[in-house]
Design a protein that fits this description.
The complex is a heterodimer of chains A (about 325) and B (about 270).
Chain A: E1 6-7, E2 18-29, E3 32-38, E4 41-43, E5 47-51, H1 58-65, E6 73-78, E7 81-83, H2 87-90, E8 94-97, H3 109-119, H4 128-138, H5 154-165, E9 172-176, H6 184-199, E10 203-207, H7 211-217, E11 220-225, E12 228-234, H8 235-240, E13 245-250, H9 253-263, E14 266-271, E15 274-278, H10 284-293, E16 298-304, H11 308-316
Parallel strand pairs in A: 1-12, 5-10, 5-11, 8-9, 9-10
Antiparallel strand pairs in A: 2-3, 2-4, 2-6, 6-7, 11-12, 13-15, 13-16, 14-15
Chain B: H1 2-10, H2 13-35, H3 58-67, H4 71-90, H5 92-97, H6 103-136, E1 142-143, E2 149-150, H7 152-169, H8 171-181, H9 187-205, H10 236-260
Antiparallel strand pairs in B: 1-2
Helix pairs in contact in B: 1-6, 2-3, 2-4, 2-6, 3-6, 3-7, 4-6, 4-8, 4-9, 6-7, 6-8, 6-10, 8-9, 8-10
């Protein structure tokens, strides 16, 4: 396990340039540190993917960001203010969908939103009905607004949860698995919604296991495992932390491997007619040229840029079993 | 905002069912007395039962007497135990708190709703009793326990004062329920524990060897509301009861506050 998280942000930005900043954030339950010395930096205006395996401490981190759980050590600044002290000033600007939607089953979608809206600190009672209608329309629930929540499908519940997060204009949205249980149309709508909210200048913290989804919408990401941050920064630089691999298909694997080794490539592996190796600083085109000049019969030559998934697996491990 | 809490509680089928059962009790008792032919002799059956055949409004007092040991504490235990644990169990607690709905504010509103529920529940019993009594029996001036007579209006006022005092008797239990509700995310457990405490208090109160602690038991003065039907009203026990309930409220609301404002919300 890496002890020093890679910090790929160019320079540590000034505090007001960060929508979320945690310093040494730690939470221990019993003797176990579920979140361990986390220094998360979410730039204002970014769509920030927060990634990690099940049980890696994502949800506990989010709960600490929102003041639901008290940190054992460290501090949280949200929108430039200290949490949980400034909760009453900060949280009205923060929309949340944490660990799935939760509503009163015996109330309709509309009544649920009305109650949630009324729970806020500012009593804009006169415009409440309009706000609720607008939020319902935004997530495509207008037609089912007066059904009881009990009768909603999983996707509809998720939509209502998003509607609650979007009830008021927000400068920060914290969304935990927002497309969980949604149909493809819903998933696409949510993606567009996130992009639209971000285009309006809001910061979005997106927790998701769907790496393709994160690649599509996020500008930045952080990866945590076992409660520790292992990487964070712009998506581009995160990908670059994983080495590009080249694969040669040839009739002379022995010589090909020797050439690649001479060039200084790492992790050389031979499988059947394929030789693959990890680039260090070499350019793939130079490798190809060297192979040909060394009389290796090249049938095909592929250089594959790593995906976010490669980075993720490299940093968090292959295992299927939950880490704890 | 606490009106929204109130609406949330009373829009729930479970709450309506609880109040329905409470309303049914005086109706059943009054009907039983009416259709079995004979009224009760003085000293027979629950307090005030012997008066019922002479004056229908006594059905309200009989109703309060018979619901107080069991139905009313059960209803209070259900609503109080659910107050915080229910929100935690549904997961709505995390969304309320991140609106933000300050923890202290939420607890105070839940407490206020509980007070309202205690009074509304006892008034439902009283109103159902008066209506059933008025339909099944003659009504008229109210004879007090001291033998004097009050006009029907004055008597009805006394009956509602009794309902309010019974409501007040339940506040200590409500505060204990609210506290227990902050300890767990399982509402059923909180309800059962609260109801259990009411039962335990009743059991301890029935053991003569424990008379030293009797004056401090939650349920000890519960049935003294009948003193309101004396002339003049005998306030001693009623005052002691209300002070005792206030003491329980002070202790357990403080404990609930200390617990709830510092706890990790993981549900």
């Amino acid at each position: 396990m890496q002890t020093d998280p890679m910090n790929l942000a160019p320079d540590a930005p000034a505090d007001d340039a960060l929508a979320i900043r945690t310093t040494g954030l730690t939470k221990r339950f019993g003797g176990t540190a579920v979140v361990d010395d986390l220094n998360l930096q979410v730039p204002t205006g970014s769509v920030f993917g927060f990634l990690g395996p099940n049980g890696s401490g994502k949800t506990t981190t989010i709960r600490m960001l929102l003041g639901l759980v008290n940190p054992s050590a460290g501090s949280v600044r949200l929108l430039g203010r200290s949490m949980p002290e400034a909760a009453n000033r900060v949280l009205p600007n923060v929309g949340t969908l944490v660990e799935g939607p939760a509503f009163y089953p015996w109330l309709s979608g509309r009544r649920n939103l009305t109650r949630i809206d009324a729970a806020g600190p500012d009593p804009l009672r006169t415009t409440r009905a309009d706000r609720v209608d607008a939020a319902l329309a935004q997530v495509g629930l207008s037609a089912a607004a007066d059904k009881r929540y009990r009768a909603y499908s999983l996707g509809m519940r998720q939509r209502l949860g998003l509607a609650a997060a979007l009830l008021r204009p927000r400068s920060l949205l914290i969304l935990d698995e927002p497309t969980n249980g949604m149909d493809p149309q819903g998933t696409r709508e949510i993606r567009n919604l996130i992009r639209a909210v971000a285009a309006d200048g809001a910061t979005v913290l997106l927790c998701s296991h769907l790496l393709s989804e994160v690649e599509q919408v996020c500008t930045h990401a952080a990866i945590i495992t076992l409660g520790r941050l292992v990487a964070q920064g712009p998506l581009e630089s995160l990908r670059e932390t994983t080495t590009t691999r080249v694969t040669v298909e040839t009739d002379d694997t022995e010589r090909a491997a020797a050439v690649l080794e001479r060039l200084g490539l790492m992790q050389i592996a031979v499988a059947g007619a394929l030789v693959s190796a990890a680039l260090d600083s070499q350019r793939p085109e130079d490798c190809c040229k060297a192979l040909v000049l060394a009389d290796v019969g090249v049938r095909s030559f592929v250089s594959r840029r790593p995906s976010l998934e490669d980075t993720y697996v490299e940093l968090t491990g292959e295992g299927f079993d939950v880490a704890r | 905002m606490w009106r929204a809490e109130l609406a949330l509680l009373f829009r729930r089928t479970r709450t309506q069912a609880l109040l329905g059962v409470l309303a049914l009790v005086p109706i059943v008792v009054a009907s039983a007395v009416r259709f079995s032919g004979g009224g009760a002799q003085p000293g027979e059956g629950p307090q005030f039962l012997d008066q019922l055949t002479h004056n229908g409004v006594f059905a309200a007092l009989v109703g309060l007497t018979v619901t107080l040991p069991f139905f009313l504490p059960l209803a209070v235990a259900v609503v109080a135990g659910d107050a915080i644990a229910g929100e935690a169990n549904l997961g709505t607690l995390r969304y309320l708190l991140t609106r933000p709905y300050g923890r202290t504010r939420l607890l105070l509103h839940k407490g206020a709703v509980l007070v309202a529920f205690c009074v509304i529940a006892t008034c439902v019993v009283a109103i159902a009793g008066i209506i059933a009594g008025a339909i099944l029996f003659p009504i008229g001036p109210v004879t007090t326990l001291s033998g004097t007579t009050l006009s029907l209006t004055a008597g009805t006022i006394r009956i509602f004062a009794a309902a309010a005092v019974v409501g007040g008797s339940l506040l200590g239990l409500a505060a204990i329920g609210l506290f227990i509700s902050t300890l767990t995310d399982a509402p059923v457990g909180a309800m059962a524990a609260t109801a259990g405490i009411a039962v335990l208090s009743g059991v301890l109160d029935a053991i003569p060897q424990l008379h030293a602690i009797h004056p401090w038991l939650l349920t000890h003065y519960w049935l003294t509301f009948g003193d309101l039907l004396r002339s003049p009203v005998r306030w001693t026990a009623i005052t002691k009861n209300l002070l005792l309930q206030a003491g329980y409220m002070l202790v357990f609301i403080t404990a609930a506050w200390a617990r709830f404002t510092t706890k990790d919300v993981l549900a």
